[in-house]
């Protein structure tokens, strides 16, 4: 169960054909304290690269893009009530949504941890 | 300790953290007066106005009349006035010092403008007066319109938009109307450079378009190859600011205009930075189709809490028929305001509608024309020259200690990134807060987004060289302090301001928007 990363600082973790997505530690450091997160509706489908969520922070507002194509089957209501979770544990409790993905092949275009570390260095 | 439990502790005479000083009995220190909230200054069970109870009034409210107290603080006039004057003394204003907010053009507002705006023929009239009784005011609107069209070389201007973003909306609605008139309802994609003001994409979306972002090249300007690749028959137009928000002139603007026109789209130019080119460049010559002009920036009318904005929008020949009502025309010797769409249609126009109830910001029109007339065409040209000169002076003085975001000279604002703070533990936010301790309003920070930790400084032409030197001395000193490891100066700044470092995160996450009477609490021993 490896985590893959996009150049726009989203992460995705695959469990079977379910992808859990969120934003990276680096992204939260750049954004500063997160104030609110606008999550997608369950049941809605997104293509890879579509805007899937919006993050508001003390510094700015940023779009979050779907790292893979798929249908939203669950969202993390917890971060709507407690957005600090995104800052505190971006790769765990601060996840955004679960997608039922259509094409595992899309994962190939994403970076592994080492490549992402190099990308943000 | 008596604390306001709703966030900011406001009671005086506690300690420095609560807004009052601990070392005086009153909580004030000399002329720095502690000031609580107006609800704490006044009492909600008193009124400052003593009116006799009306007699023999039969209520017609059907039992819906208020039965309980309204709960507003009651203060006499001098108390209410002193409250706000005391608060104003804790504020920062363009009349107190340089206000270097990039992208905002916070320049001095000459007092002559104020005198003109208060003339009874402009200041004491009513929008519903018969037009025959306000001929002078209509002539002033017509005269200002004439000069705005002359300075931009355009054939039409809508005077009514009430701010920059409202002007953008006016321009994009005209573009939408023009496309609809052509029957091209499929053109819904608007190209917006990534350094654009946030209002640009917001306006486009509001008008039913969707945005497509054009990346910037390494020189901070539109990447022409990326722009060309995005052209197509679904493109409604482009929204471009020139000079752009990186403080750079878009050199390829003529080619951009030609290409967008060839592709069947329109060119919306954001005129927010017109101050840098007024009298030197006529946007109409560059091929723009619509552009708003911020009177409150370029033409020195007050803004930023000091007054409302005003955003007249000029149009090219192609969009002119779609401009909104109202507009003024001269018929013989008489000035006339065309107020209704039917009348405009009878003149052959196709207005997309109306944006405001009346005619726009009359007070701002008077101030702007006063500014134009007192400067003259040569004076306005010098405004642009000196604003660019001043920004380049700041850039040249600071480029050795701070890091300019782009090489070369700038236009009216100098843009730095946060590379010079790397590994110091000091952030752009800390740096800006430390400026408050030094008595300066910070520059615009973290914008434009294309630059990391951006600091955008727009000195405007109204600062003198000696004033800029003092300002640059302070920034130089702060940059050196950060580099030498003096992080204490930054980490909790501002420490000398009436209100210390605020918890902005908590304020945004759990805002307290309504005052509630604090519960009585036992006094803790100090």
Explain what the structure shows.
The complex is a heterodimer of chains A (121) and B (526). Chain A is of the alpha+beta class and 121 residues long. Chain A is built from 4 helices and 9 strands; from the N terminus they run βββαβββββααβα. Chain A is globular. The mean pLDDT of chain A is 93. Chain B has 2 domains: 248 residues, Aspartate Aminotransferase, domain 2 (3-Layer(aba) Sandwich); 130 residues, Aspartate Aminotransferase, domain 1, CATH 3.90.1150.10. The N terminus of chain B is likely disordered. Classes of the chains: A alpha+beta (121), B alpha/beta (526). Chains A and B meet through loops of A and α16 of B.
Overall tally of structural domains of chain B: 2
Q: What does the overall shape of chain B look like?
A: globular
CATH superfamily of the largest domain in chain B: Type I PLP-dependent aspartate aminotransferase-like (Major domain)
Helix percentage range of chain A:
10-25%
Radius of gyration of chain B: 26 Å
Low-pLDDT ranges of chain A? none
Question: What would CATH call the architecture of the largest domain in chain B?
Answer: 3-Layer(aba) Sandwich
Look at the helices and sheets of chain A and give the structural class: alpha+beta
Question: What is the C-level CATH assignment of chain A?
Answer: Mainly Beta
């Amino acid at each position: 169960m490896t985590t893959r990363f996009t150049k726009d600082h989203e992460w995705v973790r695959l469990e079977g054909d379910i992808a859990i997505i969120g934003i990276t530690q680096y992204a939260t450091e750049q954004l500063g304290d997160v104030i609110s997160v606008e999550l997608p509706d369950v049941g809605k489908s997104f293509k890879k690269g579509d805007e899937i969520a919006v993050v508001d922070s003390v510094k700015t507002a940023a779009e979050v893009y779907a790292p893979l194509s798929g249908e939203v089957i669950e969202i993390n209501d917890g971060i709507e009530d407690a957005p600090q979770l995104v800052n505190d544990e971006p790769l765990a409790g601060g996840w955004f949504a679960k997608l039922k993905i259509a094409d595992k092949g899309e994962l190939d275009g994403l970076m592994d941890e080492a490549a992402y570390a190099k990308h943000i260095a | 300790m008596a604390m306001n439990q709703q966030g900011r502790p406001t009671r005086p005479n506690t300690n420095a953290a609560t807004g009052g000083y601990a070392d005086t009995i009153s909580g004030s220190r000399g002329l720095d007066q502690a000031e609580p909230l107006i609800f704490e200054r006044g009492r909600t069970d008193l009124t400052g106005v003593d009116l006799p109870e009306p007699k023999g009034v039969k209520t017609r409210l059907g039992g819906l009349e208020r039965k309980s107290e309204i709960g507003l603080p009651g203060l006499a006039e001098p108390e209410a006035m002193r409250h706000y004057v005391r608060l104003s003394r804790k504020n920062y204003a363009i009349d107190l010092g340089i206000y270097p907010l990039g992208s905002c053009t916070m320049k001095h507002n000459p007092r002559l403008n104020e005198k003109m705006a208060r003339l009874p023929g402009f200041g004491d009239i009513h929008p519903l007066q018969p037009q025959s009784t306000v001929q002078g005011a209509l002539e002033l609107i017509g005269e200002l319109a004439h000069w705005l069209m002359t300075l931009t070389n355009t054939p039409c201007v809508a005077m009514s938009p009430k701010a920059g973003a409202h002007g953008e909306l006016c321009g994009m609605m005209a573009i939408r109307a023009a496309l609809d008139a052509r029957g091209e309802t499929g053109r819904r994609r608007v190209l917006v450079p990534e350094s654009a003001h946030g209002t640009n994409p917001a306006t486009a979306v509001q008008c039913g378009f969707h945005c497509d972002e054009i990346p910037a090249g390494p020189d901070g300007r539109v990447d022409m190859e990326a722009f060309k690749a995005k052209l197509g028959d679904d493109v409604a137009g482009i929204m471009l600011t020139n000079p752009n928000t990186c403080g750079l002139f878009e050199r390829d603007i003529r080619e951009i205009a030609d290409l967008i026109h060839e592709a069947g789209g329109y060119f919306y130019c954001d005129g927010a930075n017109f101050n840098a080119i007024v009298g030197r460049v006529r946007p109409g010559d560059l091929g723009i189709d619509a552009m708003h002009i911020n009177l409150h920036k370029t033409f020195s009318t007050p803004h930023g809490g000091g007054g409302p904005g005003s955003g007249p929008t000029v149009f090219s020949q192609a969009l002119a028929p779609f401009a909104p009502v109202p507009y003024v025309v001269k018929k013989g010797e008489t000035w006339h305001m065309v107020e209704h769409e039917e009348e405009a249609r009878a003149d052959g126009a196709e207005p997309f509608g109306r944006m405001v109830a009346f005619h726009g910001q009359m007070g701002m029109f008077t101030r702007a024309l006063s500014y134009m007339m007192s400067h003259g065409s040569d004076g306005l040209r010098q405004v642009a020259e000196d604003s660019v000169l001043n920004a380049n002076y700041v850039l040249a003085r600071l480029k050795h200690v701070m890091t300019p975001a782009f090489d070369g000279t700038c236009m009216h604002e100098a843009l730095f990134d946060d590379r010079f703070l790397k590994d110091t533990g000091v952030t752009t936010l800390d740096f800006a807060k430390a400026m408050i301790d030094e008595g300066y309003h910070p520059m615009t920070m973290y914008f434009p987004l294309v630059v990391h930790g951006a600091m955008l400084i727009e000195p405007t032409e109204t600062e003198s060289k000696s004033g800029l030197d003092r300002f640059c001395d302070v920034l130089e000193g702060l940059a050196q302090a950060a580099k030498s490891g003096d992080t204490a100066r930054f980490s909790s700044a501002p420490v000398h301001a009436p209100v210390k470092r605020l918890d902005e995160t908590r304020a945004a996450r759990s805002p307290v928007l309504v005052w509630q009477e604090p519960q009585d609490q036992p006094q803790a021993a100090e």
